[in-house]
Amino acid sequence: MRMRVALAxxxxxxxxxxxxxxxxxxxxxxxLPSGGTGTVSAGDGSAEGTPTPLGARALSAESVQTVPVAPxxxxxVEWPSGLDATQQALAKVFVDGYVSSxxxxxxxxxxxxxxxxxxxxxxxxxxxxxxxFVDRRESVTxxxxxxxxxxxxxxxxxAEVDACVDESGVRVTEADTGRPMESQPAWTRRxxxxxxxxxxxxxxxDGVYRIKAYLHASYPQQRAKECxx
Length: 229
Fold this sequence. Notes:
Elements: E1 5-6, H1 20-23, E2 63-70, E3 73-79, H2 85-106, H3 120-135, E4 138-155, E5 158-174, E6 194-203, E7 209-218, H4 222-225
Parallel strand pairs: 1-7, 3-4
Antiparallel strand pairs: 2-3, 4-5, 5-6, 6-7
């Protein structure tokens, strides 16, 4: 779900976020769970491979969670451990935005919940991205993956959230028939399918975090390379 601007334009954080995180090397390792292919880790209380609702429990410890989007379409989320309450809220708004955007696509724009978590440029970009699928009468199936989720910086009401995205398991389908398109777009194939997504997030007067702007780093940019496994 690449939104708007390539990473070269990282003057983004005039939204109350510090831009320092955009200049630091990004390594999706360390405190991330090892392995994991779409199952909830032991101790969560869920059966292996069973999709579970997106919720706060997933943020309490290292885990890999399969989030259902629509029949045949899921998102695998690797949650990092050790996040404080603010970091948990920031990680969740990022993941919620990603998952709800796919729900909008698979519902052909009927599910508009994704718009509640975005504002300003991010709102326009998210709407345009969903609208493109609707206008082309396209949907998706398969598995998208989020991993390397990190809170790169927090400054006042603003923050930067980074995550690696792997959409090589996604297939674009005809919305009416569910059949895979004969020609799949380049973004479903490696190396283009793996990229770094960056979100500028701001806490509103109502206390709710929303994404104001998206950036991404695509191959062959160095930060996108660091998302490869």
